[in-house]
Please model this.
Amino acid sequence: MKIEEMRNKSFFTPGPSRALLGVAIALFAATRLQAATPVTPNATQTTKDVLDYLEQVVAEDKILSGQQLGFYLIDLYNTDTSGKGPGVGPGSPGGPNDYSEFVHIHDLTGKWPAVLGLNTERDTREDLVGVALQQWNDGGLVTFSSAQRSPIDNQASHFSDLTAQQFDDLLTPGTEIHANWLAYIDKTASHFKILRDAGVVIIWRPYHEVLDGNFWWSKQGPERYRRLWRSMFDRYANDHQLNNLIWCWCPKYYRDASEWYPGDDYVDVGGDSVYTASRELREANLARQISNTGDGSKVLALAEVGQLHKPSELERSPWAWFNVWRGYIDKDKYPLRKVYGDQSTAAEVQEVYAAPVTITRDELPDFRRSSDGGAESRQDESKDP
Model:
């Protein structure tokens, strides 16, 4: 699909304060979104099929539903509500884990999200391998984000600072901090290998929201950041042979991000984090998403959102999926003490999941059959747990 064709999409209707969007579209009017080729060397056929499908979703004016789940989840279909709410801590003593917002969405809508979002920050990542397998084996897609702990000691929060010298040491083999960084990302790679060997494709979103300047990887400038991204890419693609990854770069586009872009050879998807309810600000973000993602040929996504977009905003949109962050899915049931933007209501969740534009898990092709000659459409409904 050509970017010039995207001008005819309802999302791009001319209006006030949309000059930035118009410039971005004009700039890439001649750019064609080619058949997707993963940047990962020797990508599996299933990985190619998933990336092709993401582009197809946009071309067909659809969007995949997605939901991020909590750090402590060990069962995708957990219904134990005796512990804490989603993503805020372990379950009750002796209880299994976080309550699953997947189950809550299914209770509200009768549908399962097409995309499961997980995070590799906590030490429960081994458990998350099993959760990812549940989603994949039941016909869904999986995306992992990373809020990697500080490589100074692999213990401090991802909100920690790194000095310029520490960052340079991180990028220098033979230093202690480089060894710490390798140990951390290699542990994650060991879990991803389990999923690779099971045929699971991972949409991988490391080192996100760099423009916020909140996380250690964002605090010493774009040149060091680009080297960091490329170093991880090389480690995963070449040393670990993780040929099941689709790389999603999500800088948070509230201002120009082009100098932070790792490069067309290192990114498959341009993702955004959108918590504002303002349509005008979201359109400005979208314009930067188009114009900051290399040659304009990349798939775009709402990799992290707070409040759901309205179905009318999702119709004929340029995004392949949305991923609602944990805790934002139903403010009636889980009011948050602190939110960025707003949460969705149960009625809004039901409206979006019932909309024809929204693809749920039961509507996905069966990518598990890719190795037998390509993904096939599934006609059967996904099973209840």
Notes: The two ends are 38 Å apart (CA to CA).
